[in-house]
């Protein structure tokens, strides 16, 4: 994917409902990301969990969402059965 | 939310019970006789501290603060509560040397817990990385 930014007139929770059945997941209050586009994780100096995407962008994962993320990554998604 | 607060307070009470059990075991082995009033005071103080640490864990879930800020606030609040109670209960005598020693011990124990969590988070990141590599 090329680095494109698209503006949507939807609330983040509405986008979440649309994208969660696919490979997307909530990472924090303000971030939804594609799980298949994750390059690696890193614990930053101050204790935040950082996620680096294949595109080179970097976001933080809230502790509250880590368990969910781990489940999706390790066990695959149970929602669409793959 | 209210239930979660109660849960964590209860968890704190549980820890204070374990500590009191340890202390009572020691006293029993020495055949010591302790007045109920003293026991009541000490148990109350340790229950307050237990409840505090239970509820204070919410600080680390407050996303709007960076982990560094969470840690700083939690650390300072903990000291602000623990030291007055310890001095009041005579766990730490009100002398400069004792207070300094108490502070050092507090920081050492606090650091051990912090390092434990840091280790856990590192392991968590490693596990996530391993699953990302496996998925490729």
Please describe what this structure looks like:
The complex is a heterodimer of chains A (82) and B (136). Chain A is an alpha+beta fold and 82 residues long. Chain A has one domain (12-75). Helices cover 26% and strands 29% of the residues of chain A. Chain A is built from two helices and five strands, in the order αβββββα. In chain A, the strands form two sheets. Chain A has a three-stranded antiparallel beta sheet. A two-stranded antiparallel sheet of chain A has the order 1-2. Chain A is globular. The model of chain A is unreliable at 78-82 (pLDDT under 50). Helices cover 82% and strands 0% of the residues of chain B. Chain B is elongated. Chain B has 136 residues and is an all-alpha fold. Chain B has two domains: 1-91; 93-136. In chain B, helix 1 runs antiparallel to helix 2 and helix 2 packs antiparallel against helix 3 (67-88). The longest helix of chain B has 40 residues, at 96-135. The chains are: A alpha+beta (82), B mainly alpha (136). The interface between A and B is medium-sized, with 21 and 18 residues.
